[in-house]
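Whether sequence alone determines local backbone shape is best considered at the level of individual chains. In the encoding step, the backbone of a single protein was reduced to a row of integers, each denoting a local shape. For completeness, the protein is quoted in full, as a sequence line and a line of structure tokens.
***
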Amino acid sequence: MKRRTFIRNSATAAAGVSLLNTGFVSRRAAISRDIGIQLYTMSKPLSDDFTGTIKRLADFGYKNLEFAGPYYFSPEEEIKNNPLITMMGLSGYGYYDKTPKEIRMMLDDLGLKSSSAHISDASLKHNIDEAINAAKIIGQKYILSPIFIGQSADDYKAAAELYNKFGERCKADGIHYGYHTHSQEFAVYDGVTAFDILVKNSDPDLVSFELDLFWAAVAGVDPVKLIQKNPGRIKLLHIKEMAQKMERVYNTNEPFMNMEIASKIFKNQTIIGEGIIDFKTIISKVDNAGIDHLIIESDFPEEPMKFAEQSAVNLKKILSGI
């Protein structure tokens, strides 16, 4: 970091400027990070009024947007079979009928950025070149696979091999590749979790991870221990809230095979800061672990705008105490 930049950031930290506008400041170093939101959370409002919804998110203080697919470069089958599109009757999705250049212009006009995008394995297999091209135009630094559901250790070893290939291709164009966790990655195969299989069999220079704190809680996983056990591998955190303690731990594929269980889990999400996850302790304990971005998310909130606005306010309060 240049001396002038370090001095400026240190002064900003001392001044205590708005945490949402400049990111929260590390207790141990003058590092600012911008709070983001996963746009999957806002699917319906974005489908109804993309431009207006993005402007409101900017008004709420968000500076970083994480997109979710499918996209114009996704295979047709993925678009036809996407449950969110079919259940909620969405239009646009992905980049909402905007070109990457139009997205970039809108972000620039509103003082926003997009650091990352969730892009399915199917889409990356179908047209990774265009996925990377779009990311470069928009300014995204991370392309993230949103989910993989395996049945065995061999399945996850094969997934890791695929992710190394994605990572190698992304790295060639200056993009980081990563994988977003849920709960099934903590199923145990031959005495080893699927997550550990992914970590062990993927190249740390090519594959990083985005840890979802809600799904870690569903799986009964201590996120601090997980991050400390895998230094430098987890680069992004999904800040997702759990309303109340689960009756049991789910660390298998069961929630993704049983709609009744899935519905119960989805309904146990709430506004950030109004549940049981101790974000303050988690974030403070991994402060120097190399986390690049904090991204708020919820699956199907009943009132997306209320969720986004109040979650931003509450996370600001949480981070102010670190």
